[in-house]
Write a structure and sequence with these properties.
Largest sheet: 3 strands, antiparallel
Shape: rod-shaped
Order of helices and strands: EEEEEEE
Strand order of the largest sheet: 4-6-7
Structural class: mainly beta
Distance between the termini: 32 Å
Radius of gyration: 23 Å
Strand content: over 45%
């Protein structure tokens, strides 16, 4: 399967040049699975990181570079305390882990930017 072509034009005088994703002038990226810790759910998240091999952005004079695009996602984080769930008929008290919503920033792509 071939990669879909993308087109890049920085200045009005530039010609549109077809570039294959992750080749030539386009920013290269790779997917990594990031382990948060046992205190988070989900335990693992997919994250995109940029593979900047130097002057991959056009113009290649260093004024443009690959920048990671991110989004904020919500995960659950286990607190260091417990919560009282209920007392049963025998008087036994049950405690459960307390999980709270937590924001993390993950990479979703890379783009040329100055």
């Amino acid at each position: 399967a071939s990669l879909s072509p993308e087109y890049m034009k920085i200045y009005d005088a530039d010609d549109f040049t077809p570039v294959k994703r992750n080749q030539g002038q386009a920013c290269q990226s790779k997917e990594v699975i990031e382990g948060l810790s046992a205190d988070y759910f989900p335990r693992y998240v997919n994250n995109i990181v940029c593979v900047d091999t130097g002057n991959t952005c056009k113009p290649s004079d260093g004024s443009f570079s690959c920048v990671k695009t991110t989004i904020v996602k919500h995960v659950l984080k286990k607190e260091d305390r417990y919560v009282l769930e209920h007392v049963d008929d025998s008087g036994k008290t049950e405690y459960f882990d307390l999980w709270k919503k937590h924001e993390i920033e993950i990479g979703v792509g890379c783009e040329c930017s100055n």
